[in-house]
Amino acid sequence: MRRWLPLLLLLLLLATPAWAQASPTVFAAASLTDALRALSEAWQARGHPAPRLSFAASSALARQIEQGAPADLFLSADEPWMDYVAERGLIETASRVSPIGNALVVIAPRGGQAPVTIARGVDFAAMLGARGRLATGDPAHVPAGRYAQAALEWLGQWDAVMPRLARAENVRAALLLVERGEAPLGIVYGTDAAASTAVQVVGAFPAESHTPITYPFALTRGGAANAEARALLGFIAGPESAAVWQRHGFSLAR
């Protein structure tokens, strides 16, 4: 019997579906947390193994991929950080797609700041009060922070507000600062605001105040050989997942 054991194991391996052999690792922007977890559950309901999900700022994930972290899929919150890994030959360029978008909003603790119209002339410093700080992702490396800086520059408010930023490591950390009342205002994505019962949206930035907020997805160079990762990308970027993205507040690419 022992003589046949290696052959039996080989036959069993060959009979096992390819996707069952390699559950993909997904590096995803923090703002995708709720929607991607819902999509992961839907994927598992189809008989697939649970993807390993890792959420953080796109910059941190891109640098981890650069350093050799074993990710199969990279879901970025902006195009520049996907460009960063693409320029280093770390993704399968042909797999890159940007299926969803988002909006940029100002939030406050629920029951706090009254709604305002976000337009040139709005005084963020006055809204923050004498000692309040404005929570957002660190503009040095967090996409949400970059969009926030661009929008504040467009409004003519950046110089006044910049010294008073509470620079968070990712957009969900910025949301948490406002939820806890540690910052009277924050700038996050509309989807993050919608996911919280502790904050309220007090204003939305005009679309022309910043570049379009799009989310590029791609297979990494290592993930390109993983059939399960390729199938998962097709699912989350395809029409079957559109309703889930929309339910969590994302817009669909036109």
TrEMBL record:
Q: Where does molybdate bind?
A: S31, S58, A144, V171, Y189
Question: Does the keyword field hold Signal?
Answer: yes
Keywords of the record: Metal-binding, Molybdenum, Signal
Gene Ontology terms describing biological process: molybdate ion transport
Q: Which SUPFAM superfamilies match?
A: Periplasmic binding protein-like II
Any one GO MF annotation of this record: tungstate binding
This protein's GO CC annotations: outer membrane-bounded periplasmic space
Leader sequence range is 1-20
Entry keyword annotation includes Signal? yes
What family is reported? Belongs to the bacterial solute-binding protein ModA family.
Q: How does it assemble?
A: The complex is composed of two ATP-binding proteins (ModC), two transmembrane proteins (ModB) and a solute-binding protein (ModA).
Q: What is this protein called?
A: Molybdate ABC transporter substrate-binding protein
Tell me what organism the protein belongs to.
Answer: Plastoroseomonas arctica
Q: What lineage is on file?
A: Bacteria, Pseudomonadati, Pseudomonadota, Alphaproteobacteria, Acetobacterales
In the UniProt record, what gene is named as encoding this protein? modA
